[in-house]
Design brief:
This protein is an alpha/beta fold. It has two domains: 2-114 and 148-194 and 274-361, Rossmann fold (3-Layer(aba) Sandwich), CATH 3.40.50; 208-256, no CATH class. Helices cover 34% and strands 21% of the residues. It has 13 helices and 15 strands. It has helices at 2-5, 19-31, 55-68, 84-90, 122-126, 156-159, 208-224, 233-242, 248-256, 264-274, 312-329, 344-351, 358-361; strands at residues 14-16, 37-42, 71-76, 100-104, 110-114, 132-133, 145-146, 149-155, 163-167, 169-173, 177-179, 198-199, 279-293, 297-302, 306-309. Strands 1, 2, 3, 4, 9, 10, 11, 13, 14 and 15 form a ten-stranded mixed β-sheet that branches. Strands 5-8-7 form a three-stranded antiparallel β-sheet. Helix 4 (84-90) links the parallel strand 3 and strand 4 (100-104). Helix 2 (19-31) packs parallel to helix 3 (55-68). The radius of gyration is 21 Å and the shape is globular.
């Protein structure tokens, strides 16, 4: 059903060279609805250059919305280390209007949505792939994603909203291939540690060195009696670094940070399904996109394009092709292991194939 709604149809994706035409498209979309309330969802995950929504786009959108709509909410869920007060201070000039409210979704009430058998994790579950992980709280997703239970703790205020305007920035992404409109939904999740980002063993790089690294880690820990649970991460990492052995935590994160990751795109698709009934508009900023170690440490890549529309998959497809074209034109300056035709979320919307990768199941 979701694939029928979000077909990759580039005809309705508008490409812009300046903010004037973006303004016209946004006003046209707002005028086609009768919103009393609207949510603006910027990219505020981190405040480093190239990782945030640009001030000029944000200012334009908040100005138009505040003039046309009674209640405007700006909301996002930043990283734990991000100072939200500093974020608001950076965008202060655009938030001066009294009918604009700002919400840190980390503190928001959440709605628990169980997709059950509609989740795209079911194909993995059916073949016994279940050890879903994320960052420091690696086992937490396993409590919310198993058998036919697939729960997401999304922002209640956004889930109950009338309309959402997304302001993502086009960047490469070490797990998903790219981040744009579709991945913007991650920022609507309050319970981020429920989200599967990679799957233990299944998402590992299929290289002998990955196996050798894990065996060496195991051997070093057994020799030195390093109990993972009781020794601080930094000490563990330092000791293993001196012994030229990668820490287990880093090994799994690095192992899953490649185009073979078959997990994070399923999380994104599930969130698309949760929000499919909402009226939404997307403004993808690719004027200066991010390549290299995206999404948090990208290098600048000038594309001079902004894309708008109501279909996140179609816009992401166009943005992804722009990244691929830039890669072809300037291979010596391209630093990302990025490939458009390996982005699994886009592959799924073209082929409909959500089956687990066979080479991993068979090993």
């Amino acid at each position: 059903m979701l694939r029928e709604i979000y077909q990759i149809d580039d005809k309705n994706v508008k490409s812009h060279m300046n903010l004037k035409s973006v303004e016209e498209e946004l006003i046209k979309w707002l005028d086609s609805h009768s919103f009393d309330k609207i949510v603006i969802k910027p990219n505020w995950v981190d405040m480093k250059p190239l990782t945030r929504t640009e001030l000029d786009i944000f200012t334009l959108v908040t100005k138009i919305c505040s003039e046309k709509i009674k209640s405007v909410l700006v909301a996002d869920c930043p990283l734990d280390k991000t100072n939200f007060n500093n974020v608001k201070a950076f965008y202060k000039s655009a938030l001066s209007n009294k009918n604009i409210k700002v919400l840190n979704l980390s503190n928001d009430e959440f709605e628990t949505i169980d997709l059950g058998e509609k989740s795209l994790f079911m194909p993995l579950i059916e073949v016994g792939i279940k050890k879903f992980m994320m960052g420091s709280q690696r086992t937490t997703p396993q409590k919310y994603h198993f058998d036919t239970r697939h729960e997401y703790g999304v922002s209640k205020i956004i889930y109950q909203s009338e309309g959402i305007i997304h302001l993502p920035r086009l960047k490469t992404h070490r797990l998903a291939g790219m981040t744009g409109c579709s991945k913007s939904y991650i920022g609507t999740v309050v319970k981020k540690y429920w989200l599967p980002h990679y799957t233990l063993d299944y998402d590992q790089m299929p290289l002998p060195r990955a196996i050798e690294r894990r065996l060496k880690i195991k051997q070093v820990k057994e020799t030195l009696h390093l109990p993972t649970r009781f020794i601080p991460y930094r000490i563990r990492k330092g000791v293993l670094s001196l012994l030229h052995a990668q820490d287990k935590i880093d090994s799994y994160l690095l192992g899953a940070a490649w185009e073979g990751n078959d997990t994070i795109w399923r999380t994104i698709d599930d969130l698309l399904l949760i929000y499919k009934r909402h009226h939404q508009f997307y403004i993808l900023d690719g004027r200066v996109a991010g390549q290299g170690e995206g999404p948090l440490l990208p290098d600048p890549l000038i594309l001079d394009k902004i894309w708008t529309g109501i279909n996140p998959i179609a816009i992401d497809n166009v943005g992804s092709l722009a990244l691929e074209e830039a890669k072809a034109k300037a291979p010596t300056r391209w630093t990302s292991p990025y490939s458009h035709n390996r982005i699994k979320l886009l592959q799924y919307f073209v082929t409909g194939d959500a089956s687990p990768v066979k080479e991993y199941i068979e090993k």
